[in-house]
Amino acid sequence: MQTQEIQKISSQVRRDILRMVHGCQSGHPGGSLGCTDLLVDLYFSTMNLKTDAAGKVVFDMDGTNEDLFFLSNGHISPLIYSVLARRGYFPTAELATFRKIDTRLQGHPTPHEHLEGIRIASGSLGQGLSVSIGAAQAKKLNGDKSTVFCLMGDGEQNEGQVWEAAMYAPHHKVDNLIAFIDENGQQIDGPTEKVMSNRDLEAKYKAFGWNVMRMDGNNAVDIQNTLIKAKAELGKGSPIMIIMKTEMGAGVDFMMYSHKWHGVAPNDQQLQDALAQLEETLGDY
């Protein structure tokens, strides 16, 4: 898919995120907006997804012979819900039920709601990389040549389980895995440098044996080019880690450059000001 198309879809997804969080006055818009460009590229361009004869995506929990994505930082659920709906996994009208009573769109994704596209519960930070490694190993054992993708936050690197997984994957040559760290420099209590500095994440992952790359996570061209390079490195004995620089709240000027919008919903006027900055390209739900 051309980058111009990716950018148009991303604009609509950002509108969805803002309207969903505003609609229930709860949720996490900042990180969702920051990671939009990556997830739109993955689901609309990069990933090989299972489809029927008419080209509509088909979901099953096993995910055999297709690429898989696992969202570890599950609090950015508005993003994954919007992308899944826009990709055709479930009706976009269901986005209006986000975080409401009896919804399938919980604040943090859960598989027991049987929402198409969701395979694990996430939001208890630190677990997604381990799950992704297990799925990637299962694919290798089954002779499945597909790729597993995983997204984590930079604040999430505070979790010890992340580093157990970081040691495990290179040792076992899990080379069908591409993981991402959203390096926006913000977490719920403030800048990551003040809360708990990650210092040099690139050096750390390289020391564990990962093939580490960097990219601009809010630049559609750089995302596509980096993913092409990363896919060319699959099967060479090392898992791949892409550290992507993003801005929390990307796309909305007053939500950027601060941790303030990590978990705060916009009021009516703020919603209108934000939507005015984002083109409606696919039609609001």
Automatic annotation (TrEMBL):
<dbReference type="InterPro" id="IPR029061">
    <property type="entry name" value="THDP-binding"/>
</dbReference>
<feature type="domain" description="Transketolase N-terminal">
    <location>
        <begin position="11"/>
        <end position="273"/>
    </location>
</feature>
<comment type="similarity">
    <text>Belongs to the transketolase family.</text>
</comment>
<dbReference type="InterPro" id="IPR005474">
    <property type="entry name" value="Transketolase_N"/>
</dbReference>
<protein>
    <submittedName>
        <fullName>Transketolase</fullName>
    </submittedName>
</protein>
<keyword id="KW-0786">Thiamine pyrophosphate</keyword>
<dbReference type="Pfam" id="PF00456">
    <property type="entry name" value="Transketolase_N"/>
</dbReference>
